[in-house]
Amino acid sequence: MTDFEAIRHEFPILERKTYLNSCSLGALSKRSEGYLADFVDRWHDMGASAWYSHWLGRAEELRGRVSTFLGATPHELALLPSTSASLAAVTESVEPDGRNRVVCTELDFPTLAYQWAVKPEIEVVVLRSPDGIRIDPEQFAEVVDERTLFLATSHVFFATGYEQDLNALSSIAEKAGAYSLIDGYQGAGQTQLSLPETGIDFYTTGPLKWLLGGPGLAYLYVRDALVEKLEPRLTSWFATKRQFDFDLQGFEYRDDARRFELGTPSLPTIHTALGGQEIIDEIGMRTILKRNHMLTEHLIGVAEAAGMSLTIADDEHRTFIVMIQHDDPSGAVKHLAAHDVIVDYRPGHIRVSPHFYNTTEELDLCVETLTNYVD
Ligand SMILES: Cc1ncc(COP(=O)(O)O)c(C=O)c1O
């Protein structure tokens, strides 16, 4: 049995605030803070020699831990600075072979479609949601064809929490000979993942949100069979086989997904991300999912009982992002913050995203405080 009350003490923000915004930024743990302090100490003590004796090892430890968490191998995982950088690395690594279309959806985070908005030679097809919550796999199947270079979309939509079916998406792309590229920033930590079993070609995520590791890093998974085939045209000295030869003429891609890397990774984040990932791994996704489902159902129940209207996915596709409809979301979020309740807003909605460290009492307080808001 996981003692969630004890786990709460790992996260100092929970003593100060009612923190319900993990889909923007996961809470910082004492463990992450301790690893960060260790990084700073070694910097003071050893300077650059800490690179070889400690820091490169920490990066590999993180790569190992995260790839296991994703059901993959370290061979298939690159460390990059942001989701946008991961997406750019992927788009710059494939040959169009006469294909000039990318299919994404209006519910994706904009940085995804922007990758091709700046490439006039590519036509971006944006699928429209029938209800503002979901996109059906059949909608992709209708338009993904021999002209499609990428089926590019989210695992979980950032504004509705709807989880898409990765296996369905990968097979639609594969049938058309297109690549499947998934923005999984809201997927990892909200779902049980075993990426090689999904058939997805590329999946990018990172520690910022549900994995409790802070900003400055992204994880790019590249399907094993593709790793050695692709030659990214965005590159760096981390992508070459003999990184420390400093040979200008000797560039040769590494045999693993590190060929997608773009230079020195964010060391502070490697430390904070390790702390967050360790905690997630220790609790286990199965336990986290059970707890988060319970919290989300509770939130939905109290919000509806208070007369609020929600924009949420059906049970089968719902994750832990709950959108409460509101006429003045920015004012309401400020009101909540003034009462130490931290949530977020998107057009027409307040976005509440509980994680395992929250309690039902915190959700009650959030709804009650929101009820008291007078525009
Ligand atoms: C689904 C999704 N993709 C991408 C981003 C942002 O990516 P980047 O790391 O490039 O800032 C966010 C939010 O921060 C997001 O929710």
Bound molecules: pyridoxal-5'-phosphate
SSE string, helices as H and strands as E = HHEHHEHEHEHEHEHEEHHHEEHEEEH
Low-confidence stretches: none
In which order are the strands of the major sheet placed? 2-8-7-6-5-3-4
Percent strand equals 5-15%
Helix count equals 14
What profile does the largest beta sheet have? 7 strands, mixed
Describe this structure in words.
It is a single chain. The protein contains 14 helices and 13 strands. It has 375 residues and is α/β, with parallel strands linked by helices. A seven-stranded mixed beta sheet has the order 2-8-7-6-5-3-4, sandwiched between helices. A four-stranded antiparallel beta sheet has the order 9-10-13-12, covered by helices on one side. The model has no long low-confidence stretch (mean pLDDT 97). The structure holds pyridoxal-5'-phosphate. Pyridoxal-5'-phosphate binds at residues 82-84, 109, 111, 154, 158, 183, 185-186, 218.
Produce a short descriptive summary.
With 375 residues, the chain is of the alpha/beta class. Helices cover 40% and strands 14% of the residues. Pyridoxal-5'-phosphate (PLP) binds at residues 82-84, 109, 111, 154, 158, 183, 185-186, 218.
